[in-house]
Amino acid sequence: TMLFHVTRYTGQNKLVYVGHSMGTTAFWVMMNRYPEMNSMIQLMVGMAPVAAAAHMYSPIKYIAPVAGPVERVLSMTGQYEFWPRGSLFADISETLCQEVDGRVRRNESVCAITENIIFLIAGFDAPQMNFTLLPEILRHTPAGTSARTLQHFAQGVNSGRFTMFDQGSEKANLQKYGSPVPPEYSLSRVTCPVVLYWGLNDWLAHPTDVAELADGLPRLLASYQVPFPTFNHLDFLWGKTADLLLYHPAIKLINQFGKI
User: Which of 23, 47, 87, 231 is found 20 to 30 A from 4 (Cα to Cα)?
Assistant: First the structure.
């Protein structure tokens, strides 16, 4: 719907799609469900791309096995959103960082707790962390996601496969898919041109998983490692030199591709 809106608004019949993390996952799924959409995409740029996450290094992999029960508990209590804005963690993080001023070294303050949680999830990269911006980041992040989306992602971590949502039982899967297990998504159905950017220190989109993903894309033009050895999953969004390391090269590539 969003892509059709953009084409109508701009008058362009072909688009460049740029996605980060789950924004790339949604793209692979879209092209499986609506393969005709490939013809609308001039170029897909995937940053920290994710499909299956078998080699994830982040401690999230230890939480993934209990994601199903967590989703069911949330649903039973009428809570269908996980980690929304205004959640306890978001409120505590913002409060802690607001207490920091010029008289206290940040690494000696309680705000460092929040920073270390971020590093623990995404990978450690203090040189790229914009500590000055962190309080503002925490006013908007986390912004919440569907509890079922979280469960679906956890299923991929647990199984190491990129599949449709597991309904929880063979009977339910048979009713939904005609198969006792959820069907796999096929990256071979992504027939538009694709360029990938990934970080060597990304604990969520692990380089091994990215390499396997790249092997499955029939029109992969290039797969670029961001040239910074500790570049992590969130540096794609907030890295202090992400403009020089990533955005400028990506925009240059997009402009060049548009002239072909």
Answer: 47
Q: Is 179 among the catalytic positions?
A: no
The whole-number mean pLDDT for each consecutive block of 10 residues of the chain, a chain of 260 residues, reads: 91 94 96 96 97 75 52 52 54 54 47 57 75 74 71 85 93 96 96 97 93 97 96 92 97 82
Q: Is 248 a catalytic residue?
A: no
Angle between helices 22-33 and 147-159 (to 10 degrees): 90
Residue in this structure with the two tokens 């019949």, named with its chain if needed: 13
The DSSP annotation for 72-92 comes to: HHHHHTT--EES-TT-HHHHH
Q: Residue 84's pLDDT is what?
A: 57
**Distance (Å, rounded) from C-alpha 75 to C-alpha 62?**
22
Active-site residue, from 21, 58, 93, 223: 21
CB 64 within 8 A of CB 58: no
